[in-house]
Amino acid sequence: MRQSKWILIVLALLLGLVLSACSTGNDNTEEDAGDDTQESKEEKVLNISSPSDIPTMDPILTEDNVSTQWIDTVYEGLYRQAPGGEIVSGIANKDETEVSEDGTTYTFHLREDAQWENGDPVTANDFVYGWQRATDPDNGSFYGNYLMSGKIENSEAIFAGDMEPEELGVSAPDDYTFVVELEGPLPYFESYVINSNFLPLNQDFVEEQGDDFSLSPENILSNGPFKMTSWSAEEGWKVEKNESYWDADNVNLNAINVKVVKDADTRLSNYEVGELDRVTLSGAQVKDNQTSPDYQSLT
After folding, report:
1. CB atoms within 10 A of CB 258
2. What domains appear along the chain, each with residue ranges and CATH number?
3. Quick one: which of 119, 121, 126 has its CA closest to 242?
């Protein structure tokens, strides 16, 4: 069974020496264990912390790890990175991707069961719009420039203001075929497209939000494993399982609650009183907690 990149996102937040509780305290067990017809109502919620707020949820503006991690929980691109680093299928079926003999044309075939949170299908036009938006110099995407300029056909001229974003070397021959023209062969191109700047965006939704796009959960439209349902500046945020996600049956968490806690000792205290399910240890905390039954090394 394919494991989605959101698992890696959680691990990235927890990587290191941690204390991990055995239970989140959010389980609802069956009232009658003898009733074989009654399904378990177990609610799987993970409560963790972050040392900082999310600077942005706009995929083309992210320049930090926190933003990237959580953008990748609510969006899905052509491919994802599985545990262990393998590049696997996302919206595109990796096994069906076609590459021209000279290595400059990639043809991606998209799955037809992927949809946005509002029920709209995820189409090749969403990738065309998302990539064009990343190369528009008016939008100020630092990594869009770094990752695309001189690589995607016409991208360098677009960033220089000599061509329009609509002239970028991407096209949608039909709703589920996305074609990319490169300036030259790029052997590592498939590893590039897991970056946030290569995500699809629903053009109608983005343009309807205007300057408010991505500033709050109401201004974000998910096509990934989770959807953001709350976000309070400097306090925290919550993502919940996106039932519209094409692979929702394999998303085993119902929600992730993230609390912004900047001080390491405060994070540990929050864990000890049961407000957090896991906490990363630092400095003297490692030595002080090595004998705890909750202590784990996630390296």
Report:
1. 24
2. 5-297 (3.40.190.10)
3. 119
